[in-house]
Amino acid sequence: MGLITVVRRLCGKDKSKLRRADESSKSLSGLKYEITDFLRRTCDGYNSTHTGVPNSHINCANPKISKGLSKEAAEKRLQQDGPNVLAPPKEINNLMLFLRQFLNMFWILMMGASILSLITYFIDTSVRLNLYVAIVLFLIVLVMCIATFIQEKKAINVVRGFGNLIPQNVPL
Known about the structure:
The chain is mainly α. The protein folds into three domains: 8-52; 54-84, no CATH class; 94-162. The protein contains seven helices and no strands.
């Protein structure tokens, strides 16, 4: 037995177990086991025997005889609760996204240092170094906030692209 095999077994990453888990997840019997296991855990959580989960039409004792909702009950729930859809996330406009970049604590500290340096310059205008430091600190914060804004905008577009890959309707 090789060192890599021993390490994999100690870490719980044995290839034979992974292969078996992968094969069972592809088979319908594995899926059936997962569903019945979920049903058993759900029924045990409600300490029910044959009555089922509250507000459910599942018979915990014999799930095979559970028929689900009737067409009328399904239409009533659709009328009452509406369609089963997720609301799209609230979009933030570019100006608010850009202004939010300045709320980083480090940038706030640098802006504070820039303001203090500017105040020091106005107290004694003969020392121009305070003005230069204030300008440089402000420019650093501005450039970094612009860079962060661009990166966050790209990330938002990537996430939006992933959203386009998800199907809008899924058959059950």
